[in-house]
Amino acid sequence: MVKVGLGLLAALLSLPLLADNNAALEEEARDVTEAFMMSLKSSLKASLAEGGPVEAVQHCQQLAPALAEQYQRKGWHVARTSMKLRNPDNAPDIWELEQLIAFDKALSEGAAPASLSASVVEPGRFRYMQGIMVAPPCLACHGESLTPEIKQILDARYPHDKARGYTAGQLRGAFTLWKALPE
Q1: What is the distance between the alpha carbons of residues 69 and 120, in angstroms, rounded to a whole number?
Q2: Does 5 fall in a domain?
Q3: Quick check: 80 and 90 in contact, CB under 8 A?
Q4: Number of domains making up the chain
């Protein structure tokens, strides 16, 4: 009885430490997401300026995985997911799909795009997601009316592409991150 009581007491005393640790992990995840997003965005803008949308498609296909690899070396697994996939390797798992649905619902109810984030602690890892909104430059490759040249390159590189037909301001998907936690 004493062991159970002491174990329960230890668990209750550690709750504030867990909350502080989760807040720190969430802040770190936001920072990683921001850095990843800014690197991707600036590189894609440069590709668009240099060679137009065709260059950007080619560049993005190679760049996003390379950037994600940089963050894996820092302990974070970084990826993107969506309900309308371009790359089937980025399919959401159950938790990610639940968050995407919740983000979409929150947006439809008037939530600010910046508020679209979620985190959870699972056995052995911390997870974080942040929504990706469709901005006007995204429409060249994800919009409702794509040029024949863009359609051709997307069809060739992504034969099962569903990431088309968006308008500015819609939820494109989310950055999804996780980090292993010490046992």
Answers
A1: 22
A2: no
A3: yes
A4: 1
